[in-house]
Amino acid sequence: MGAKQSLLTEYLDRLNWTPRELAHAINAWLEARGRASDRIHPTTPYHWVAKGFCPYAPYPQIVAEVLSMELGGVISPADIWPGRSALDRHQPASAIAALAADWDVDEVIAKISELTHDDPDRYVPAKGVPLITAALGGIHHSPSRLADTSGKDALRPALMTLIARHIADLRLLDDQAGGGALNLRYVNGELHAVLDLLRNASASADIRERLLLATADLAQLSGWMFWDSGNYAASQRYLLLAVRAARATAQSSTSELRRIATESAANTLGMLAYQIAHSGNPSDAIRIAEAATEQSTHASPGMRARLSGRLATAQAAAGDVHAFRNAADQAKSLLQARHRADDPPFLYYLNGEQLAAETGQALVDLARHNPGQARALLNEAVDLLTPLSSTGLRNEYQRSALLHGCYLVQAHLQLHDLEAAVQALRKATERLSGVQSVRCQSLLRQLRRTFARRARNPYVADLLPELDDALRSA
């Protein structure tokens, strides 16, 4: 077997997958995004493995996305098929392509508009200094003010109020159902409509600024939903552009809107740090989370709690117990001191139960890096994850309950409490039918492989068919 085909084989061996199972995962990835017509034949990957063939675009990037989700890191097509001519002809663009440190508002609006029409699968994730530079350039640059528009139709406050209400409802849709293909398509349609108004409607300065902030909000939501759908690269690009749109709003707005826009930019950076922490680059996540925190020294206690929580997640991914404790304790103290009336509207979801679950999730990651303290860290994680994960099947935050339920299962497994792990997984899978989250489905498939190694246990033997049925119907 040649060197160029051995990398794909190595990845499949790590997953204990056959080429047919890779085909199944690729087709599931496509179906989750409404692209069932692009499915491949179950035997197609055998040619990639046995003969070293490299598929034509867009499949190299899709394979990379699938393997990245399953292995919990960032894998590019070039990592799988280094130097292949098919990749050279269809080289994907970096998530930070053409995001210069110096930018203006019109450029950002144009790039967001291009992104809503682009193929999101053509991007590859960025990391290291280039990613950090692009992120910091979004908050440190002072762009020109938003230009006047001269459209013949005037945008009235009633429509602006409706747009704000739509955004709030779309956030709730994401909380409940996740980043499914149709949900993403609808959010992108809303973003496209707001961009059209921003460019073509006649409006007062205040409404133009609110439209720009709505653009930032919808780009941020798209980025978060792309992350939930398993597309890390498109997520990065949307979030980096959302930071710029929010920063531009802050530069040209009145004092109240300026505060919300500034906090929106910092919050988006915090989201980016969270995602990077879970993509195998904790040092990048720490630097970006620190930058978001530095930008928010005058923000509300609730906002600073949100950013301290993001920093805690990044420190846990790096395995730094002391730094994690400092950030997590600060987040908890700030949240207790908050006044909800002072918080920006996008922090509606953050409460003690949510922050505790996020802390528990971070502790599960931290335990992997600190085996000598693992038992104590995992017991603490169980205590923090159980309340949100065990909540009844209420509609509001199903995706969060499912996600943190998966981490609760991991904690029980690492504590060798198989009965508790089975019970927690049963509770988690009850939520799967209502949640379209590739991220959660990937976690459940990883857990399924772990449980399969214990199939002789009677608890597990009963569980596996139920889990398989739930995953097939998801």
Short description:
With 474 residues, the protein is mostly helical.
Explain the overall architecture.
With 474 residues, the chain is mainly α. The chain has three domains: 3-91, no CATH class; 105-307, no CATH class; 362-473, no CATH class. The chain is 70% helix and 1% strand. It has 22 helices and two strands. A two-stranded parallel ribbon has the order 1-2. Helix 13 packs antiparallel against helix 14 (282-294), helix 14 runs antiparallel to helix 15 and helix 21 runs antiparallel to helix 22. The radius of gyration is 22 Å and the shape is globular.
Report the structural category.
mainly alpha
What's the number of structural domains? 3
| Low confidence ranges | 1-5, 85-90
| Radius of gyration, in angstroms, nearest whole number | 22 Å
Number of helical segments with 4 or more residues: 22
Helical residue percent band: 55-70%
Proportion of residues in β-strands: under 5%
N-to-C span? 37 Å
How many β-strands, per DSSP? 2
Report strand order across the widest sheet. Answer: 1-2
Largest sheet: 2 strands, parallel
Which of globular, elongated, flat, extended, rod-shaped describes the shape? Answer: globular
What is the mean pLDDT? 89
N-to-C order of helices and strands: HHHHHHEHEHHHHHHHHHHHHHHH
